[in-house]
Amino acid sequence: MRLGIYGGTFDPIHIGHLRMAVEVQEKFSLDKVVLIPCNTPPHKENGAAASARDRLAMVRMAVEGRAGLEASDMEIRQGGPSYTVATLEALQSPDKEIFFILGLDAFLEIHTWKEYERLFSLAHFIVLARPWQGGRAEMFHVEQYIRENLPGLAVPEPDQGYFRALHENKRIYFAQTTALDISATHIRKAVNQGKSIAFLAPESVEKYIKRQGLYL
Predict the structure, then answer these.
(1) How far apart are CA 85 and CA 73, in angstroms?
(2) How far apart are CA 51 and CA 39, in angstroms?
(3) Shortest CA distance to 81 belongs to which of 111, 112, 45?
(4) Are 188 and 49 within 8 A, CB to CB?
(5) 68: nearest Cα among 26, 102, 103
(6) What are phi and psi of 25, to 5 degrees?
(7) Cα-based distances in Å from 24 to 68, 77, 102, 175, 209
(8) What does the pLDDT read at residue 33?
(9) Per-residue pLDDT tens for 109-125?
(10) From the CB of residue 92, how many other CB atoms can be counted at a distance below 10 Å?
């Protein structure tokens, strides 16, 4: 099974997250993309605005009925800070080829993550660049970052269009997805100001936010 893993705070999940997951699934012929809301985000000083229970409920609503997308509570069940290395380790199986999905901005800070060196032996990486991030200059910056911060972990394969991790034959792919200028921060601010978030988040999520009184 070619399994995509897409983690995040999802505070709340929105159309941008979902569109990104669908496009990655199609581009990389993944059997399934699993969206995993974290329990406690270790890189966010103030944590999440909504509870883990609420964020999980919204992710489940957002993917309901969508073939190939699935929600998981595994990081919430583990409790405490959510570390990617623990999640990817728990998912290891001979019948799974794992693809870890993250944004370019997050990738360029990966040397600050817990046990980041091990991540490159546990999964392929799919790094998502927005259209304005995917130019030649940006890729040069990425290559420079890898050389300076991930020495001995990956090398470029320019003719193939990816970087090759030096452990377990894993690869670091870069892909562009449709530019949707939507952020969870913007949605939370709009809700707090009494503005509509119609068409920014799935209707079921919008109704849940109103019903639960989130982000006020």
Answers:
(1) 16
(2) 9
(3) 45
(4) yes
(5) 26
(6) -55, -45
(7) 11, 26, 11, 8, 27
(8) 98
(9) 999 999 999 999 999 99
(10) 10
Phi and psi angles of residue 57, each rounded to the nearest 5 degrees, phi first:
-60, -40
Cα separation, 169 vs 196, whole angstroms = 47
Separation CA 26–CA 120 (nearest Å):
23
d(CA 24, CA 78): 27
Residues 198 and 150 sit within 8 Å (Cβ to Cβ): no
Question: Do residues 72 and 52 lie in contact, with contact meaning Cβ atoms separated by under 8 Å?
Answer: no
CB 186 within 8 Å of CB 180: no
Tell me the C-alpha to C-alpha distance, in Å, between residue 93 and each of 7, 14, 115, 128.
19, 30, 20, 25
Q: How far is CA 204 from the centre of its chain?
A: 21
Strand, coil or helix: what is 28?
Answer: coil
∠ Cα 48 30 70 (to 5°): 40
Residues 143-149: what's their mean pLDDT? 88
Residue 12, both tokens: 């709340």
Q: How far is CA 173 from CA 75, 197, 210, in A?
A: 25, 33, 38
Q: Give the residue from 111, 126, 149 showing the smallest Cα distance to 20.
A: 126
pTM of the model: 0.93
Burial class (CB in 10 A: 0-12, 13-18, 19+), 195: exposed
Nearest to 6 by CA among 49, 36, 40, 30: 36
If DSSP codes are grouped into helix, strand and coil, which group holds residue 112?
Answer: helix
- C-beta separation of 191 from 208 below 8 A: no
SS3 content of the chain, % helix, strand, coil (to 5): 40, 20, 40
